[in-house]
Amino acid sequence: MNTAVQPGTSSGSVPRRKLIEVSLPLEDINDASAHEKSVPRKGHPATMHLWWAPRPLASIRAVLFAQLVDDPSSRPDLFPTEEEQKAERERLHWIIRRIVQWENTNNERVYREARDAILKYTDGNPPAILDPFSGGGTIPIEAQRLGLEARGSDLNPVPSLKTRALIEIPPKFAGQAPVFPGAADTQVTEWSRATGLAEDVRRYGMWMRDQAKQRIGHHYPKAQVPVLGRDGEPTGKHTQAPVIAWLWARTVICPNPACGIPMPLVRSWWLSKKKGKEAYVVPKIVADTTSPGGRRVEFAIGHDPQLAPGKDIEGTVDRKGATCIACHSAVEFKYIREEGRAKRVREQLMTVIAEGDRRRIYLKPTSDHISSANLPQPESVPLGSLPDATLGFRVQAYGMTEYIDLFTNRQLTALVTFSDLVAEAREMALKDALAAGRPRGESLARGGMGAEAYADAVATYLSMAISKLADWSSSICSWINGVEKVRNTFPRHAIAMTWDFIEVNVLSNAVGNFGNHVDWVSSGLASVPADQVPGFSHQADAASRDYSGLLISTDPPYYDNIGYSDLSDFFYVWLRRSLRGIHPDLFGTMLVPKEEELVANPYRHGGRAKAEKFFEEGFERVFTHTRQSASSEYPITVFYAFKQSELEKEGIASTGWSTLLEGMIRAGWTITATWPVRSERSGRMISVGTNALASSIVLALRPRKETASATDRTGFLSALHAELEEALPRIREGAIAPADLRQTILGPGMAVFSRFSRVLEDDGSTMSVKTALALINHTFDTLQNEHDAELDADTRFCLDWFRSYGWDTRPYGDAESLAVPLGLSVDGIARGGTLTSGGGKVALIKPLDLDSGWDPARDDRLSLWEVTCHLARAYATEGREEAARLMAGVKGKVDLDEVNRLATRLYELMESQDASTAGLFNGLGGAWADVSATSTTIRPAAVAETLFGEEI
């Protein structure tokens, strides 16, 4: 495969428009993205190592495919008629609908069809795909799954390693059997993809776990569980049970001179809020002359719901501060921070959590469990200081200034032990690979593919498992009492202070243990498309790297959403300890590079304004640099992630969005498409109202011609009107929810605006992007209104009525004044089934109040309004099959394309007045392609043949 971006047209001709620039089955893509978040995660590439804000694979697959295949309208040589173009477009949509399904991830037949289509439309030589902000590696791995040469780079070495582990290492060893003694004999079929390497990672990982048990297992004692008699009372006997975790409370000395007790800092006393399994910590003050203040706190376990903590006594810490459990003095956070910085914050064991028979067992602390955790800090811990202040970090104020401060000494001992075992496992893997007949070869860093490189690969994935273990084995982890599970260090992109923290048993078989993390890494590795074209990942700055011959698809950072470099140091210090010699290009520095990171970090750049300026200038610099070597034959694609606050305040015409588009245009790009992508969705968005905004926008961009001319406002508006009118029908061919249409139409609108070198206002100034966005929206509204005049009279009446009165009941005269100019009678409209009229009062009938037994075959006054409302009602209340049955019944009687358009129109009209009814039309519009396809399989009863009186 040639890695250069290949021309898709002859020299000097107009580049072919790609599918992404014309039409996508957007609702199917968004539904699949939401579904992906609910499927079992084992085997998903994102679970091999944490990286923040991963993009759903479904949306990436769809975007990459549509970025490369031609829209049929640009290939009249292959599809000369509109009907043929529409049929081919639907075929391409169908391919997308199949590849976005999580269940098809490794379905070779499905992906062969997609790869064949890409080869067809790229003349058998598709370009190599590059993500210069590769992050978690999701774009490169999906490019590889589609048979493309995948490249990834990132300034940060942690995502560079993850991307390397996804796309570069597995193809080197695809199809090879495992080398661990006896492992290859466990499977009679071939070891496809990288399943052999994955099996070795699992085997050597289990060996490491067994070795760790021998070396540090005595620090993890079992629990002594009281044996209960038939009466439920203790018999005095005990049985052993494996410990899942230990729950600790941080403590400070009470500042009240009359008290001085080591006071526990506890968010919640609750251990389990499950009905019938209630459990909570019961603190008790006891005398102890050896303790500060002459007293200390003991902990027991309670189960009686009647005596459980109430909302007013949930714990000892809330947002205002802490309360001493002994003297009830209020303690400010200021004092706790001072104690932390003075290294006087301690920990006290509250609860031992053991594994029972399908339940958790909560036990009070015992001396052996307390002493087992009382370890010195191990030697050779990784070095690294937390930033003084940065995005998402809160712990420094409490004296945690080094990364090792985030762990207990027992946690550090375990992590150091496992980290040391990586080198031993690597030597075992090398010995076993040589014994299996593999040539020694060069190391992985030198491009080797023999035994040395294989041992390096095994060590890489085992180190990733240790890095995952660190996430689940720090003193920032907490207990989720509602589900009785562990919350890891990074449930979100921050390191927040945790008062009562959980310490998992890393040698157990329960959540958070080392073996579990090895299994997750191994399962993810087994699922990657290692049998495709080898990929390549390295560390590079997007602002200066070479882009020659590469086609970009990227998900760049956005403003100050996430401080990636500071957060990833948490993992880097552990990865570097094991992998500095294996990946010297990634782990040569003490910590992750930060100064050039493209994030608006106000702590690093002297305030928010300077930080945002740094981001905007850096973003424009990157895309100016990419423009210099860009080909005009393929669009690049960029995922733009909105801030939630930006969406809520300003919507799609937000300042940040406008600023980004301005930068793209100044950098020399023409925006040719914008597609709203979301992964937070329930069903078909039946009840979506005005807040149905995408969490991301995918942009397609092409380099603007150097010879691009300027135009004035009039010229821009004229071109805008003509091209939006042409684009709308093709956009609707995809499954587009009405809630997404207004955002989608910005693509062809911005294509008009950005292809000019500048658009001049009447006063000679240059039109801003924000003004252009407003004009695009206005033109869309104008087109909607112009089309209304072509609708049937009953539908026009209903539109006029809703604009004037909504669903209100009004006097008969109001209806008559609207009906007469249209040549209608009120009684005739009511006979059509869309209006109630009686007693001098008139009202429109809401869709959900329409007759569920409606039969279009017996309706002699069909209107687009009536059909649209019935289809929306049927889809919302009875599902796709019933809506399809009604659609089949009206075919040939109304223009179904007009019904689809009207569904969008009604959503637009109703979203601000009646969000729930608007949601009905949004649901219908989003499901239109599915309903339409199903309707083709249904024979209307009115024309069906019968045999012996029965329908056939």
Give descriptors for this structure.
952 residues, alpha+beta, 28 strands, single chain, 14% strand, seven-stranded mixed beta sheet
Show unreliable segments. Answer: 1-12, 644-653, 681-694, 942-952
Query: What is the CA–CA distance across the termini?
Result: 54 Å
Beta-strand fraction estimate: 5-15%
Gyration radius, rounded: 32 Å
Query: Total number of helical segments?
Result: 28
Mean pLDDT: 89
Oligomer: single chain
Describe this structure in words.
By secondary structure, the protein is of the alpha+beta class. Helices cover 40% and strands 14% of the residues. The strands form 9 sheets. Strands 17-2-1-18-19-21-20 form a 7-stranded mixed β-sheet, with helices on both faces. Strands 5, 6, 12, 13 and 16 form a 5-stranded antiparallel β-sheet that branches. Helix 2 (57-68) crosses helix 5, helix 25 (880-890) packs across helix 28 and helix 26 (896-910) packs antiparallel against helix 27 (915-926). The chain is globular and about 100 Å long. It starts with 25 loop residues before the first helix and ends with a strand. Residues 1-12, 644-653, 681-694 and 942-952 have low confidence and may be disordered.
Q: Topology of this protein?
A:
Elements: H1 26-36, H2 57-68, H3 82-99, H4 108-121, E1 128-131, H5 138-145, E2 150-154, H6 157-172, H7 195-216, E3 223-228, E4 234-241, E5 243-253, E6 262-265, E7 270-272, E8 279-287, E9 295-302, E10 322-323, E11 330-331, H8 333-341, E12 346-355, E13 360-363, H9 367-372, H10 409-435, H11 451-471, E14 478-480, E15 485-487, E16 500-504, H12 514-527, E17 536-539, E18 550-554, H13 564-579, H14 608-627, E19 636-641, H15 644-650, H16 655-666, E20 669-677, E21 696-703, E22 711-712, H17 713-733, H18 738-744, H19 746-754, E23 759-760, H20 769-788, H21 793-805, E24 810-811, H22 812-819, H23 826-831, E25 835-838, E26 841-844, H24 864-878, H25 880-890, H26 896-910, H27 915-926, H28 928-935, E27 946-947, E28 950-951
Parallel strand pairs: 1-2, 1-18, 2-17, 18-19, 22-23
Antiparallel strand pairs: 3-4, 5-6, 5-12, 5-16, 7-8, 8-9, 10-11, 12-13, 14-15, 19-21, 20-21, 24-26, 25-26, 27-28
Helix pairs in contact: 1-2, 2-3, 2-5, 3-4, 7-10, 7-11, 7-12, 10-11, 11-12, 11-13, 14-16, 17-19, 17-20, 19-20, 24-25, 24-26, 24-27, 25-28, 26-27
